[in-house]
Each structure stands twice: as structure tokens, then as C-alpha cells.
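Support request, priority: normal
Reporter: lab tech (M.K.)
Component: structure prediction queue

Hi team, I submitted a job for Anion transporter from Telmatospirillum siberiense yesterday, and the status page still shows it as pending. I've pasted the exact input below so you can check whether something in the sequence is tripping the parser. The sequence length should be 477 residues. Please let me know if I need to resubmit or if it's stuck on your end.
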Amino acid sequence: MAETISVWNIDVLRQKIGVPLAGLVSLAIFFAGVPQGLSPEGHRAIVLFAGIFVLYITEAIPLAASSLLIVPIGALMGIGTVKTMLEGFASPSTYLIVGAFVLAVAMVKTRLAERITYLILSKVGCSPMRITLGVTLSNIVLAFLVPSSTARTAILLPVCLSIISLLGNEGRSKFAVNLLLCLTFTNATISAGILTATVPNPVTVEFILKAGGRDISYTDWLFLGFPPALLMTFVTWFVLLKMFPAESIDDRKGLSLIQDGLASLGKMTAAEWRTLVIFLAVVFLWATQTWTKLDTTLVCLLGACLLFFPRIGVIDWKDANKGVSWQVVMICGGGVSLGEMLMKTGAAKWMANGIFTSLGLTGISVLGLLLVVMLVLLYLHFIFVGTTAMATALLPIVAGLAQAAGLPPEILVLPAGMIIGGYPLLMFYSTLPNIIVYGSGKLRVGDFVRAGSVLCIPACVIYAICAATYWRWLGLF
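Reply from support: The job had stalled in the queue. We restarted it manually and it finished. Here are the results:
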């Protein structure tokens, strides 16, 4: 209780000081004058960026409102016109996120995702090790089929809580901590390997394009990101198993719950079959982009729209309106606009040059620079609430860092996006699935810090080895 009150007090304080602090920081940068090597437009862009950055971190106003604020303030400051400031809200990545949310709504409404979860758990078994493995495998499969980490958590959490309750672990137990952390952490780590699995991934692709890099397709991301993400997902499962060894439990109770849950769903309905066919068609078109040349967003929106058609579809607009997180869409749109503004005015490159020089990175190898970027981003999760805001705030600077080092943007931005989207493990507020799981009342803040700090070490090692070998073989750099 004391821990909860302490966290709540910190949140209240953070929100109270957020707006005045944002104003003070912006004014301090403005009145400091235009630094050498930076254009007046770039200076004004940094003034705006600094204020929005503080609002993102403190959440003094809703994140969506902070993102929308970029448009009128940017236009009033003369950084761009209203039209140019709104361009981020019309970016392909923004509408890929909308389409992904709609697809997720269909999976949840028809209960197809729930059926897949029960099927996996029934095949894996019901010892503590097997249950957590089943949740891990469910996260891997659902990451392809449910393009929303929050929706996947919402699907799996009731199942996990039912298992915990049935096995006689109503309060806090090592099994409960293990299972719930496994749910949210493996959900995050596998997301780094699939373009549509979490919002920061398409945002990353958008920033690579804005910085003059190549277009990263669904299959490009899969080939580059899935192997390290899959390996890290199983490492996460194993580490949590060792950190929180479960008490002995009655396997028969767990198996009975899973079988009853599966039986309650009955036979697959026509709506489930239609949803499955549309999903498989979307995934097939994503996987064959090399030959079809169809854009990722185009395919996603086409599949999403089919879900509304008479005789074919399974949802209506009321369902979609409830399931689409418009806050995330606004954060993405505003963040893309802010990032493009920083890159166009030269502000991102100027900030990156400052970082490059102050950290003594001049002359460092590409692999060394990549390691520094990934390590810094891993631990910056401590100060960010949500991965989307983190991606939109920091990826433009990473792109500028690549430019300062004379590298194609994808070499730094792509791994940075994977780290941001896949490794919000350090605090309960780092991402919405963490918050949802923490809200069960069976976890403490310290559980996230303890497990997340340990897991960041193998994450750095795995991605470093991947960069030194696998990514080189694929020609990333």
C-alpha cells in the first residue's frame, strides 16, 4: 500500500510541475539565442521539441493533446505552415496503426485469439514451467495475428488470472509474479521482431524514410528483427523462471480450467473462419511484398475494410471505434510531424552532432556506435511513459546521429526502434501492457525493476552479436 501511495504521489507531483517546467525549459532555450551552426528555424524547432519532450515525460496533459499541440504552436512559431505541420497525421505509419487496431478488434470480438490461446495452452501442459511456456508461445503466435500489444495482453490476462486463482494463489506468489511478468515481458520482446506487432515499429519505418533511407517492408523487418526477438523472448521466459521459481501446484486443476475454457467456445463459428481467412490473406500479401510490390499500409487497410463488408465482415464501426486507440494514433501523427520538423530544419542533425562530440564518439566503429545507442535507449525507458512517445521523441535524434556519422539512417534507426518497441521492461509505466498487468495487484514496482534490469543485459549481448554477424550477412551495414 505504501509503495502504491508513493508512486501515486510522484505521478501527481510530475503532472503538477509538467506545464510550468515545459514553459521554463522552452523559454530558457529560446532566450539563450541561436547557437552556432544552427539555423533560426532549427532553433525554434528545438524550443518546441524541448517543451513537448517535457510534456511527454511528465504527462501534465494527455499525451494526445501534447501531440496535437505541436501543430498550432509549430505554425505560430513559423517553423512550418498548418498544412506541413499536419502531414504527420496523414503518414502511412499512422494509418497502418489504425488498420492494425481494426484487425485486432476482429480477433478479440470473434474470440479467435482466445481460442488460439487455449489451444496452445492445452497442448503445452500445466506445470508452472509449461504454463509460462504456453503463455510465451501464445504471445509469439498472437503477435502475428493481433497487431496490438495491449489487445494481446487483454486477451491473455483473464486466462492467466483464472489459472492463478484456480491453483490457490489468490494473493502474491512467485508463480503469479512469474506468470504475469512473463505475459507482459514476452509480449514486448517478440514485438520487436514483427513490423505490425507494436506501434513504434511502423513509426521507425516512417522516420527512416523521412531521413532519406530505404523503405523497410514487412518481410525486411521480419528477416532482420525476428531472429533476435525470438531468441530474446525465450531467454526472457527462462530468466523469469529462474528468478521466480514457482511453488508446486496441482497440474490437473490448470488442465481442467484450460479444457473448460476451450469447451465453452464450442466449434469455430463462421465469423471466426472469415476473420482467420482475412488475416491469413493479409499476412500472405505482407510476406510476398517483394513480388507483389503492394504497400504494407495498403494491404492492412484493405484487410481492415473487408471486416466491415456484408456477408464477409464480422465487426461494425461501433466495435472499431471502441477498439481503436485514437490517443495512440494522435501521438504517432504528432510525433511524426515533430520528427520531420526536426530533420527538415537541421535541428536533429545539430543535436546529434553535439551528442556525437560530447560523448567522444568521433572515430568509433559502426558496431561500437550501435551498441552505445542501444544501451542508452534501453535505460531511457526509465523516464518515458509509453513506447510511442519515446519513439517519436528520440528517433529523429538517432537519425541525426546516423547522418552525423555518415551512415545510412536505417543502420541506427532500425535497431533503435526495435529496442524502444520491444524492451520497455524496467518500470510498470513503461508501456500500457505493463500498467494493465500491474493493475492486477499481484505485482510490485520492484518486480519490474529487478527483472527488467537483469533482462537488459542479455538483450544488449544478443543484439550486439546479431549486429556483428547476422545483420552484416544480410547487408544492413
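Residues 92-323 form one domain. The first helix runs from residue 2 to 31. Let us know if anything else looks off. Ticket resolved.
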